[in-house]
Amino acid sequence: MEEFTAQGVDLSNIIKTLSGGDIGAHPAALAVAALTSAQEAGDADGMVAAAADIAAAVAAARSSAATAAADSEALAVVLHKAEAAQALVGCLPACDAAPAHAALAQVLRALAALLGCGSRELQTDFLQGGGAAAVQLVLDSHASDATLAAAALQAAAASAVRNEASKAALMAAGVGISSLGVMQQHLDQPEALEAACAVLCALTNPDDDTLPSSRWVLPACCAAA
Length: 225
Known about the structure:
Blueprint: H1 2-6, H2 27-41, H3 44-61, H4 68-81, H5 84-96, H6 102-115, H7 120-128, H8 131-142, H9 146-160, H10 164-173, H11 175-185, H12 190-204, H13 220-224
Helix pairs in contact: 2-3, 2-5, 3-5, 3-6, 5-6, 5-7, 5-8, 6-9, 8-9, 9-12, 11-12
């Protein structure tokens, strides 16, 4: 390692432990395991703490300007292997059943942070875990709550960036129309308004260069907004 470093080789994305590819002891993987355990136990506080740890891990990986891209990519691999997106999506119904909705908001924010890594694998995990439908259920139940609506839409927007399959799934689930409804309902709430605009922009932006074209067009009422 010292020899390569002296030669100027970037080792930021290289495994440097004896455990090799075993991610079990990685802090992010431990946080996902704690989240799953808390969900199984119906522990809302535990889910909040674990979700916060996942979001913090993502923030830490993106905090260094010099190695942010490599660190985010490496962390995304860990989170993908740990099935973090599926775990967070699976916690949404349990958090929604909790007396207070602080847990639901925290899990949604962690999901948005995770999907913000820009990993197609994590976006695919989100879709395969029923993420689009889960986000729409939150919007169906809590569209009048600006905080929860914003958190749900932030996760939706992050899942749709440069991913045509996610755009299609969100549109089919009704998130496009729900975004317009949140925009109209919360014109005086900047966070909710910005999140709704982010979703509409993500859905209408043909930014997935893995496909020749976008397949979905928003209804005229959304396009006019």
